[in-house]
Design brief:
Structural class: alpha+beta
Helix content: 10-25%
CATH class of one domain: Alpha Beta
Strand content: 25-35%
CATH architecture of one domain: Alpha-Beta Barrel
Length: 718
């Protein structure tokens, strides 16, 4: 028989569980509050390097305090751990019907209850098994809490799949021979984890709903990144061996044809050697790199350089960095150990001289994810003494942090791409990408990124048909980074002439939405709200939302559907825009509308209220819907992101028939001066006059750095 002894820590009742079957002793967590709504427990001995430590997280306490205090989640009161065979086992209770989200960047499913994963930084292989680009060990419950394991280990997670023999909620034994309802996956009442180390750190984030949990996580990690304005424009990555003249010619083509462009990406051929890398310019393709970058800047276009960190014998730092590299190579290049100060210094000096001081604006950090046969093996050794497993888990995160620091020292914001990340990364200015290319799964990844504290781009690279090309370009224009990646085949936005105008239209719409997108990212930074959101982060998508469910008149209950079916093919952009992409071969689709009234973005016509609708939108536009009270600030269509001194008129669209308010964020768009208070939040307000007519108002800030002049209100509802 089992024995339980109860202890009390403050107002929280906890217990020790000692099994009479000879298993190791299980103990309760000792939770300590570390911020409003955030608790931490240290289990066993320190495991050394951790993701939050590498990211050097600095909680945004002001934002956390605005969310207010909240009680420790009661459902976790009986959580226990044990130390066995040099490993740490963790067990967290689950309730019947509880949904789970998170556990890294996933491409197949948003809901994760019942899954088994080994969280391992890797090149995604088409399976949601935990081997992914950002295996963030955070799971979020629909009950309003999240659990983060701050470990740089390969963590195995049984997310409600294991059944304890003597558990208090053990399911009954069944007979498959006679019982047709026999279940191959019996009910499990816990999340269980194996951390292959003698200790770990565990964090709990609480909230009134899943959105507030993610806000607390993002804010605890410093608040989400606020990109420079140019980062939210459109980017085009040029073919690998393009010269400076070819790139400038392509930039001129974009302008001549009327397609927007804010920054260009240079692929491996910009270097004199790549795979492994010299990190210096190729003198034949780029004889005068500073002059080339200045020519781009004159056109208000920034540059982004492809790199991976592995150093070639042809690099000027090779001999000096050699003592600070690992025992194994990657593409015969030496692997620097950035946990050593000399390695960090050598890279900083070289990159500053070759890139930053002459105008490079950011990096695309490739090959820091996998596969296993590409990166170092787990038997590799590094000068710092950090194990190869932990190095694998934090390497991409570490490079993000290091390069972010370089730009911060120049008071210059950057926005780049990366293939590997982990916990603690919300504040880092990088968007994840990969070589996988499934359009549907890319949308799922947009949804799951909001539960991992990372950003993801469903970049467009190539297509078999013009229909597919347009659908992909429509999707990417509603993502954190609107990117065409032509490194391999030179694809252009106008490659398919029969949809070239429709592609141009959605690219220009992206530019028009810059004020809305910039404000959405400001919410990410100051409030912790993910800019791209899974529907499960919207009010109403909760299994216990009985009040709403009882009020529905539709034949299909969208909130019940959110429990039974994974809603993974639609997502929110900010507070107001619901995006429902179509895929090649589709002419219609269903859209699940959350609570409240919703309107067509393009026409303002009402489309439904708290229901599932069927739409047949045609090919030319991606379906976008706006919720009641939606206030969407827009600028005129422009080819380049507005400059620091440029001021433009605003058009503010309003959807619905009720009074509403929203705020518009602005700053200089390129520096970190907003941390010193150089920013504006402008109230946009819609009220009814004495005649019952809707009227809009605002008070323009007197700040000379405010980038908008006049405002015109467009009431979209017929």
């Amino acid at each position: 028989m089992s024995k339980f002894s109860f202890l009390t820590i403050g107002s929280l009742a906890v217990f020790l569980f000692i099994s009479g079957s000879g298993f190791a002793q299980q103990a309760v967590f000792q939770w300590q509050p570390v911020a409003p709504g955030v608790w931490k427990s240290v289990v066993g001995s320190s495991d050394g390097i951790t993701p939050l430590g590498v990211a050097e997280v600095k909680p945004r306490l002001e934002g956390l305090q605005k969310l207010g205090d909240i009680s420790f989640p009661a459902v976790l009161a009986e959580s226990v751990y044990e130390k066995t065979d040099g490993k740490t086992y963790l067990r967290f209770p689950l309730q019947q019907g509880e949904q789970l989200f998170g556990l890294g960047l996933n491409f197949k499913t948003v809901q994760q209850r019942g899954t088994i994963k080994t969280l391992h930084v890797d090149h995604y292989n088409g399976k949601d098994n935990g081997r992914t680009h950002a295996p963030v060990p955070l799971y979020v419950s629909s009950l309003g809490y999240g659990v983060l394991i701050n470990s740089a280990r390969y963590i195995t997670v049984y997310a409600g799949s294991g059944v304890l023999a003597e558990g208090k909620n053990a399911p009954p034994e069944m007979n498959r021979n006679t019982q047709r309802n026999w279940n191959p996956q019996p009910y499990s009442d816990a999340v269980e984890m194996v951390v292959p180390a003698a200790g770990t750190e565990v964090y709990v984030f609480a909230g009134r709903n899943a959105m507030e949990v993610m806000q607390r996580y993002n804010l605890y990690c410093g608040g989400g990144t606020l990109p420079p304005k140019w980062g939210l424009g459109f980017t085009h990555r040029t073919p690998t061996l393009f010269t400076d003249e070819q790139i400038l010619k392509e930039v001129a083509e974009f302008e001549a044809k009327g397609y927007p462009l804010s920054f260009v990406g240079l692929e491996p051929g910009w270097q004199s050697h790549s795979y492994p890398n010299s990190f210096v310019w190729d003198s034949t393709r780029f004889p005068q790199p500073a002059r080339f970058l200045a020519q781009l800047a004159q056109k208000n276009i920034r540059s982004n350089l492809w790199i991976n960190p592995y150093v070639s014998s042809h690099s000027p730092i090779f001999k000096d960095v050699l003592p600070y590299t690992g025992s194994h190579t990657v593409w015969v290049g030496r692997v620097p150990d950035f946990n050593t100060a000399p390695a960090r210094r050598l890279y900083k000096e070289l990159f500053a001289k070759q890139h930053l001081t002459i105008g490079v604006s950011g990096y695309k950090v490739d090959e820091v994810d996998g596969y296993d046969h590409w990166l170092w093996p787990d038997v590799a050794k590094f000068p710092s003494g950090i194990g190869a497993e932990q190095m694998r888990q934090i390497y991409g995160l570490q490079f993000q942090k290091m390069t972010d620091n370089w730009f911060r020292e120049q008071n210059q914001r950057t926005y780049g791409l990366v293939r590997g990340s982990n916990a603690g990364s919300p504040a880092l200015p990088y968007v994840i990408y990969n070589d996988y290319y499934d359009h549907r799964d890319f949308i799922t990844a947009l949804c799951t990124s909001s539960f991992a504290g990372v950003l993801w781009t469903p970049e467009a690279r190539s297509s078999k048909t013009s229909e597919e090309w347009l659908r992909r370009m429509q999707t990417v224009c509603f993502s954190p980074m609107a990117m065409l990646n032509a490194w391999a085949d030179g694809t252009k936005p106008w490659t398919f002439p029969d949809v070239a105008e429709e592609v141009k239209a959605v690219m220009l719409l992206r530019m028009q939405l810059l004020p809305y997108l910039y404000t959405t990212f400001a919410q990410y930074h100051f409030e912790g709200k993910p800019p791209i959101r899974a529907m499960n982060l919207v009010d109403g998508f909760s299994f216990d939302d009985k009040a709403t469910a009882g009020q529905l008149n539709s034949t299909e209950n969208p909130y019940a559907m959110a429990v039974k079916k994974d809603i993974k093919d639609q997502f929110m952009v900010g507070d107001y825009l619901l995006v429902a992409p179509l895929f090649a071969g589709e002419t219609s689709r269903k859209v699940v509308l959350p609570r409240g009234k919703w309107y067509d973005f393009y026409t303002g016509k009402p489309v439904g209220e708290s229901e599932v609708i069927e739409i047949t939108p045609g090919l030319s536009k991606i379906p976008v819907f706006v919720k009641e009270g939606g206030i969407i600030p827009m600028i005129p269509p422009v080819l380049h992101t507005p400059t620091e001194t440029e001021k433009l008129p605003l058009t503010v669209r309003f959807y619905g028939k009720t009074e509403a308010t929203a705020t518009l964020y602005d700053d200089d768009g390129k520096t970190f001066d907003y941390d010193r208070g150089k920013l504006t939040w402008t109230k946009l307000e819609v009220k009814k006059n004495k005649k019952g007519e809707l009227t809009g108002s605002w008070t323009a800030p007197k700040d000379p750095g405010f980038h908008y002049t006049t405002i015109s209100w467009q009431f979209m509802t017929p």
